[in-house]
Protein: Ig-like domain-containing protein
Amino acid sequence: MKRRPRIGLALAALACGSMALAGCTGGGGSKAGAGRKAAAPPPVAVAIAPAANATNVPVSSEVVATATNGKITEVTLTDDKGAKVDGAMRPDGSSWLPSRPLDYKRGYTAQVTATDGAGKATTSTAKFTTMAKPDTIVQTSLNLQNGQSYGVNLPLVVAFDPPVPKEARAAVQKRLLVSTDPPQPGAWSWLDEGNQVSYRAPDPWKPGTRITARAALAGLPMGKAGFGDDDHTAVATVAPDAVRMDIDNDTKQMYVYKDNRLVKTIPVSLGKPSTPSSSGNMVIMEKFDSTVFDTRGEPNGGYVVTVQDAQRLTWGGEFIHSAPWSEGEQGYTNTSHGCVNVSSTTASWLMRTTHVGDLVRVRGTEVQLARGNGWTAWNDSWDQFVKGSALPVPQDLKPAATPPPAAVTPGNSAAPATTTPTPAPTNSGG
Structure:
């Protein structure tokens, strides 16, 4: 007799096995995980500098705060009388910068709050005391004056006496703060001697730009040179018109441009061969209705003369100025002691037309402009200029920039600038 296959039993067993498998996976897993708790996040740790109980802290100090397992959300600084110090985080978040230098020999409390991923806040504090006023002071200055209007080629210039040693320049440069509206980023560049650092953008400022600058140097350690003397702040604007002057020794003419349009051609007399004018890109540094040139004691000088409508181009004493005594030679012969001589009428017109910070380009003379003899930032190409920075230059500022507009005068090739220490300002032109 044939046996019938036991299909029903087999199917029943298979179904039972499937149910059992499902029951082990679902029910067993739920029971195993029911008693577990989520792991607690690691606690937030905050480190603050200046450190707690630190003494002799420079009054230029910033609050540097770092958070482990969290993010810095608030920094406050109060003095020992409970007064709050204003300030803000740097844009890169590296530190909190007070809006003014701290006081000497004063106690302060830094309070830093950090928050973890779950929103839990942790606050830490550090009390410190600033140093006494130092004996060794570095005299500093900023050429930007509050509320003034300047030409489109004005470089910002900070000067130091004595010079800043090379190893201290990066720390000093970090305290030189510039913002513009509209935004037009630039870079700083040091003279080799360390007595001057200049700031400009790759291209001239846009007319109407608002420039805000702070040289936060009070109490700043500058290596063996000493400590900075003061903070310098200024808000200024760029003139609505772009003026420049191109001077060609071959033609003995000055070509005045406004917004790249030639508006006037002026005969000039430059420095004679024994006292030549400098060739290069300069900017107007100062303007005087009247000033005195005193060259007594100088090898090629010995005279004292009062001149009208004078505009300084170099620290060494080269000016554009009224020279009624040479009007017959202007346009034909060089007779000056290095200055750009123009007629009285023309000098008066130039004083009404130009701004401190306007570009003046001289070509074809016997000597080249020395780097640092004036505000010479525009005598360097952009690639040359950024090599003088003590800090890394942002990537978007590294490509070569557009050069100043080409002059329409003969003899327009620029020779390399020489480098000499910045001379003391003199009125030795003529």
Observations:
- The first strand starts at residue 45 and ends at 49.
- Helices lie at 7-33, 169-174, 344-353, 382-386.
